[in-house]
Amino acid sequence: MLKLLKATMVRIHRILVFKKYYAYDKTSFLQRCIIKRNSCSESVNKVTIDKDKIRNFSIVAHVDHGKSTLADRLLELTGVIKPGTEQTQVLDQLQVERERGITVKAVTASLNYTYENKTYLLNLIDTPGHVDFSNEVVRSVTACQGVILLVDANEGVQAQTVAVHSLAKRNNMTIIPTLNKIDLPRADPDKVKTQLKSLFNFDPETVMSISAKKGWGVKELLEAIIKRIPPPPVSSDGHFRAHIIDTWHDKYRGVLCLAYIHSGKIQIGQAVKWLSETKQQTVKSLALLRPKEEPIDEATAGQVVMVGCGPKGGGSVGDQLLSTDYPLKEISTSTNHVKHMVYAGIFPADQSQHTLLSDAIKKLALNDSAVSMHPDSSPALGQGWRVGFLGLLHLDVFTQRLLQEYKAEAILTAPSVPYKVKVKGAKIIKQYKGDEVIITNPLLLPDPNNIEEYYEPFVIGTIITPVEYIGPVTTLCLDRRGSPLPTSAVDDKNTLMQFILPLSEIVVDFHDTLKSITSGFASFDYQDHGFHPSALARMDILLNGVLVEELSTIVHVSRLEYNARRLTEKLKEMIPRQMVQVAIQAVVGGKVYARETLKAYRKDVTAKLYGGDVTRRKKLLKQQAEGKKKMRSVANIKIPRNTFIDVLKR
């Protein structure tokens, strides 16, 4: 009885304490939460940055010249990461970047650095070096006033070095030439400075020398950025205007944008609008990337900030974000359209995954604005998309990111380049608008009788190679239907060569062949040279006289026989044997250029004979031949879907 009374008293005490807490302390608890939230928001950076203390710059270079390593040292020097951290390539955040050791996306990091008792805001953009991702570099420099032109002191000036220097000069940017990897035994800074002098007219005294790996000279480079690169030419007063240089998708916040502010200010809760649409949006989130997000309440002109307008407030790369009262008459809408070099079909591995793959491609396209998508279909592969890329590496990285980031498995068809045709009587033929039509899929090529002229895309290829390989390089380019341009000497050991080349000849294996014949010493870069008249034809594949649409290609007339033999031989290996004989033909305009025959399965109908007259044997063989002939006239050639996949792969 005493134990029961004691337990009851304990329960009553607990109930009284519970009621007292919620009756009297609940309000104070909520007040404490509000006070804590306000104190946190007050700790967020509200300091307005003076535009004279802002420096926006990019690191540009050829592949593997040390851009990401230099970015790591700059992050260490400004206190973003601790020196000696195990993680390297901090700005290379994608899994594909770490696996391949390349930079795919241009990434921004806002750094604070104190120089001569003044605190500066340095907006660093680490850019890719491969030509397939040059679009990232082009978008990055629109938000910068200067670049660090990084050159390997061992390799010297490379092809992409020439390209990014031309880009910086066209945008009137301040260039800080910098030699990297001077700590290596083979480094020859004096020779590379001579190359920079002869090619770009850089004064050797202005060239910085660093070792990004060991940190030598990085502090001096950081101070040179503050001294040489001018502050952004922006106005903090007036209406708010910013342009978008990157976008990506967040699972909970929708589309997030990276914006460079040209004028005015932006703050949380502000009403804004996109230039491409009149619908009003509200700024939900605002942050600096350091490189992790650091929330802020306000940003001013000259800064590069992350802006989010909620799940339904997305923008696109190249669009402009404006205050609601901005006068639209003052805005120029000129944009540089991306020119896609390669097109390929992307299909789901199983049609039940079509929706999953569709969502994945759309989300990834937000983060990679250089791709274009159009719905496509195939009798063998089902519903899919025809996607445009800037090159083969761009294509490989895109499909790898689909699998790694969105678990979407895709089938990739053979890549092809876009062509252009001039159609006779385009106004009469309703399906063609205008006289000239861009063809990205060989199946869409008009009838040859309706085509007045074919046009093929060409590029200007820049090759820097040692002088001893000039002969093999010239032979390779001439074999690929190239036309030579004037050459120039880089120094006494290297030569800069240029050729006008058809895009279709370099898109698959040109770079690998070039590296092979030059023992890896040559570098290659190209830029668009437009469409030029060319002799082209569509080559079709027939199986027992039936057209296989997926295998049609557009080929130059000088390559018809070679491509026909190569494709028919590959098909003979890939297609499984049938119950009937299969004739594989490559046909152009009704003329057969190559043929392979796939033998049928054959049953030994004479196996049961153990002797007797030879007429019995002939009779059985004749009956078998008649049966095969009848079967061939009514049978359909059944080609497994996996065979199409193997043939269509590069």
TrEMBL record:
Domain of life: Eukaryota
Classification via InterPro entries: EF-4, EF-G-like_DII, EFG_III/V, EFG_V-like, LepA_C_sf, LepA_CTD, LepA_IV, P-loop_NTPase
Compartment(s) of residence: Mitochondrion inner membrane
PROSITE patterns with a match to the protein in the record: G_TR_2
Residues the record lists as binding GTP: 61-68, 126-130, 180-183
The protein's Enzyme Commission number: 3.6.5.n1
Catalyses which reaction(s): GTP + H2O = GDP + phosphate + H(+)
Enzyme class: hydrolase
Positions of the Tr-type G domain: 52-234
Mode of membrane association: Peripheral membrane protein
The keyword Mitochondrion appears for this protein: yes
Keywords linked to the UniProt accession: GTP-binding, Hydrolase, Membrane, Mitochondrion, Mitochondrion inner membrane, Nucleotide-binding, Protein biosynthesis
Xref: Pfam families: EF-G_D2 (PF22042), EFG_C (PF00679), GTP_EFTU (PF00009), LepA_C (PF06421)
Ranges in a coiled coil: none
NCBIfam families: lepA, small_GTP
Matches recorded under HAMAP family: LepA
Role description: Promotes mitochondrial protein synthesis. May act as a fidelity factor of the translation reaction, by catalyzing a one-codon backward translocation of tRNAs on improperly translocated ribosomes. Binds to mitochondrial ribosomes in a GTP-dependent manner.
Family statement: Belongs to the GTP-binding elongation factor family. LepA subfamily.
Protein name per the record: Translation factor GUF1 homolog, mitochondrial
Annotated source species: Chilo suppressalis
Lineage start: Eukaryota, Metazoa, Ecdysozoa, Arthropoda, Hexapoda
